[in-house]
Amino acid sequence: MGMKRTLVLLLALVMTMALFAGIANSTGAPVDIRLASHNAVIEGNPYRVRYEADIQEAAADAINYGFNVSYASFVANMDASTEQRLIQNSIDDGYDIILANPVTATGLDHLIEKAQDAGILYINADCIYTSTDVSILNIATDQYYLGYHTGSYAGQVLGEGAKVVMIAAWDGNPANTDRQRGFQQAITEYGMDVVASGNHDWDAAKATQIMTEILNSGVEFDGVLISQCAEAALIAFDATGRAYPKFMGFNDTGEWMQRMVELNKDERVMDFMVLSNPPGVGGSALNFGLNILLGKELREDIYDDESISSILLPSKIWFTYDNMDEYLELANTMAPGDAITYWLTVEEVAEQYFK
Amino acid sequence: MGNNIMRRWPALMPVAISVLLYAFTVIVQPSALNWTAVTSIVMLTLLLSFASAGQTLVLIGGGMDFTVGAVMSASAILTAAIMNSQDGRFLPAFGAVMVMSVAIGLLNGVCTVKIGLPPLIVTMAISNVVSRLQYILTQGSPLGYASPAFIRTVTSQLFGVVPSLTLYALVLFPLMFYILNRSRLGHQVYLVGNNPVAARLNGIGVNKVVILTYVISAVFSGFTGMLGAAYMQSAKCQMFDEYAYNSLIAVIVGGTALTGGVGTYTGTIAGALLMVVLNNTLTTPALQLTPPMRNILLGLVMVLLLILYNRGKAVRQ
Q1: What digits encode the pLDDT tens for the residues A248-269?
Q2: What is the ipTM of this complex?
Q3: In the beta sheet, which residues pair with residue A224?
Q4: In A149-192, at which residue ranges do the beta strands (DSSP E only) sit?
Q5: How far, CA to CA in Å, does A2 sit from each of A5, A10, A13, A204?
Q6: What angle do CA B236, B238, B240 make, to 5 degrees?
Q7: Cα distance between residue B120 and residue A267, in whole Å
Q8: What is the second-level CATH architecture of the domain A143-275?
Q9: What residues of chain B lie within 8 A of the CB of A220, using their CB?
Q10: For chain A, which residues make up each domain, given as ranges?
Q11: Are residues B234 and A49, on separate chains, in Cβ contact within 8 Å?
């Protein structure tokens, strides 16, 4: 009898340990997770290079939560058919999580269903997959906020009725569209007047060129609202010898921060906005996935659009002249082309988005 | 009569169109008549005409160089990385850029004459390789800044009015005019471009001449990339890629025949001016053109100009 009881207790202990081995804990062996990160493009885009690096960092950090995440990256080079083939391969290879930043916002329904049927957790990261026929998590940065926050701050420092130049990024790009909605909302709220506009297509040389051409037109303005590439637009003022505007923003690179810190080190020369659009959003998306694997349940009030399960993460880091001192070290230690980045840890994601 | 004038003074038409376009800009936006606009138009024209110098030589010799933009971007990256905000590092940066440029130019030239593929294909492929190498070197992120002194030599204004970039023009323009109009190589380039078979029968080393045009083109592109790094202060991958197309259009609009054998550097400078003024006009706020409409108009005007020059070329032949 005593022997039976001992065996039952031993069995219960083994089962408990096995159960704990299946989820995160600090003492048991970590659970092996295979992650496939699918990208529309990486090369040619420093943001995407950093995005991948941050996913790798987040994957390495997962060991602290009981996961041994092995990582593989796949790039479709903007070719939708290549993307489909690569995702199909990942399904066949039996990955545990597929993290996708796809070429287009639709067209992968059949593969998503296949992945889910195979028990793979499929998460769309850094953009919104708009199909309502499949149910997946969409994790992206709140681009509307970037435009609105910058525009609102410009409205406050320039005052109502200020004349501004609006330089957008890439027409037709979803992130640009959302940012422009934010900028436009702030422009309307603060009664600003857009006296000239252009696009830089996320190309520094083009940003300088378009700003130079606007300066050449002789049009008078108080501030420049720009969807990143701000340091390149500022070069146009240096090259033409024109006085700086009263406000310029936003951007998130080391180069922009260093220039703003240097320019305003003695006194307020030009108001500006540093605002992060973190490439680490992919790392955060991975940690949403790990929380789901831990069996946690997402809260109901966190969705931007519940029909497509989209969660937009607000930018965490921003600074202007007023709180510049808090970010001097960050500004001075970043490489010129690096963008401010961070990703939410498994714990932070759990606290903010899960029950 | 019109074609005769164009043949004699190929720079005349682009200059005339540029003046008309600028006048139109001033009429619709009177504030556009200001010294800042004039100096920045001069600066951008100089940069594009430096980048187009080698392209002119290559086109006259019957080739085409699509590595101009890639070489400019790569040399800008090298310049910023080597200078890293430190004065006194011009010579190491210049040396590295020249070695790289000569190597790429040799590769362009040798592949063109030995493989026998169209220069467009060969140079586009090599341009692609040069662009990929930029990412390998930088991981997609800028590595540093040009030195403050070098930046000043490009962006400051002499006596507060003349762009300092004109000092470089005082060296580069005469050099290019000498190569094209006074040197033995220049004469040989025209002959090779006109009729390579006849040139060979006259004892000209056609392959050697063609290879040299690509090397000179890469050297001009490389040096312009250095100036570009100073103008932009730092450098990013593929930053000047558009110069591959812009230089080609500037050269063609300036009257150089795509078929080779015909062309002048004066025409190229005028073509560069027209490109810059046209872009400037289309951005004029008073026209209220949306960015897509601006791009469509730019494309249409370019097509019109190229048709116009193609007609001129047919008459010449």
Answers
A1: 999 999 989 999 999 999 999 9
A2: 0.82
A3: A165, A248
A4: 163-168
A5: 5, 12, 16, 78
A6: 95
A7: 53
A8: 3-Layer(aba) Sandwich (3.40)
A9: 31
A10: 2-142+279-314+341-353, 143-275
A11: no
